[in-house]
Amino acid sequence: MTVIDRAPQSILSTPAPVRTGSSPEPGEGPGRSEGSLIGRVVRRLVNLTGTLVVIGAVLVFLFLAVGPRFMGYQTATMLTGSMAPEIVPGDVVVTTEQPVADVQVGDVISYHIPVEDHRVETHRVVEVIANPDGTIAVRTKGDANDAVDPWVATLDGDFVYEQAFVVPVIGDAIRALRTPIVNTILVYGAPAVLVLGVLIMIWSRPTTPQTNTDAGTDTDTGSASHVDAGPAAGASDAGGSDAAVAGRQ
Hints:
- By secondary structure, the protein is of the alpha+beta class.
- It has four helices and seven strands.
- Helices cover 44% and strands 19% of the residues.
C-alpha cells in the first residue's frame, strides 16, 4: 500500500497597514499649527475688545441717562474754558442737590442765568446776597475770566446743584456721538459689526475629525477569511488523498 502524505496548504495573507494617526495629514505641520494658534489669539483679542466696548457703553449710558433719574444727580458738559484749569472743555461736571441756605462763597454751582437764553452756567460763587423777601441771590465768576458775571442770579426753590466731582474727557465723546456722521456710522455700522461677530463665532467652532472605521473593519474581515480558508482547503485535499488510497486498497 502506498501512502501519500500531502501537507495541508494554507494561504497566508499579510494584514493591511493600519494608520495610527501619529503621522501628519497632508498639509499639516508646524506652520499650520502656528497659524491656528495666532488665529485663536486674534479671535480672543477681538472678542475681549468687543466685550469691553459693550460694557463701557452700557456703563456710560447708565451714568448719563439712568443715574440722574434715580440717584438725584445731574451731569453737564463744559463747553468753554471759563473754569480752567479745574474744569476744561470736554469735561463732564457732576452736580448734586444742596440746600440754597448752605451756599457759600467759593462753591461751584450750576444754575440758570437770568438773562439772554437762560442757559445753565457752571461758575464759582463770589458773593451771596440775602434778599428782603427771604430768597438767596448770588454773583458768580469763571475761574479763567477776569471779570465777574454781569448779572445777579436769584436761586429759586430750596435746592441748588453744586459740583460734586468732574469726569474728564467723556464730554468730548458724547458730543462726537451726536454728530451726523457718527450717528450714520452707528446706525449702519453697529448691525454690520454684530453680524460679523456672529459669523466669526460660527467659523471659529472646532470640527471633530472623522475616523475611517469602515476601512479598518473591511481589512480585518478580509484577513480573517483568508487565514481560515487555508486549513479548510488543506483538509479537503487530505480527504481526497485518503479516498484515493482507500480506492486502491
